[in-house]
Amino acid sequence: MTQPTDIRRVPGRRPRLLDLYSCAGAAGKGFEDAGFEVDGCDIADRPNYPFPYHRGDALTYLAALIATGGIEQYAFVHASPPCQDKCTLTVGTNRSQGWGGTHEDLVAPTRALLEQTGLPYSIEQPNGRAEIRKDLTLCGEMFGLGVIRHRNFELGGWSIEQPAHVPHRGRVRGYRHGRFYDGPYVAAYGNGGGKPTVTELQQAMGITWTDVREELTEAIPPAYTHFIGHAYLATLTEQGVAA
């Protein structure tokens, strides 16, 4: 298999990244801004996705790319598997409300295929998931955003230094137990209960190309993957590999 660094030795060529479980493309946009050419894959129809994408099951698609050698066109893979299984929203008391116990865990099979590619990768999950290594944790306050939205990343085949966690400036705006609290952050999930408007969500997360609430609430801020992508490309520069 062609090694990842070989792809970057082509003068003037942007490294190509595969964005799995791509949703509306927030992760992909961050990587694109960092310097990657992005292709996506999502099982749902995503007309707002801003890059070329394959509609289909991410695991099936990745397995096919590995089997056919198509994966060799890529230099990096990012994956954001659905997080409902065993996350903080689907365990404990929430399980009795019908949230937990019915969702498939896709992290382990995703990691297994990513390891087969031999490529560097990142897997993104919210807090509460024990199935990934927490090699990197990012927060909206690190990037001056209007959301907190902690996310953990497992990094395969490379590493990055964890940046300092910046103290939060206040509360997340919204109702808690019947009482309204104001604050500098909006709640990027759900609807009602003092939740932000679509425009507020777009502004808080730095996402302009979709106005679909479901896509916004499932997204991570592009600033996160811009940080990751830029850091990974910097490691190539340090190794003397042309990007």
Automatic annotation (TrEMBL):
GO molecular function, one term: methyltransferase activity
GO BP, sorted A to Z: methylation
Domain of life the protein comes from: Bacteria
Keyword Transferase: yes
Keywords from the named record: Methyltransferase, Transferase
Gene3D superfamilies xrefs: Vaccinia Virus protein VP39 (3.40.50.150)
Record InterPro entries: SAM-dependent_MTases_sf (IPR029063)
Name the record gives this protein: DNA methylase
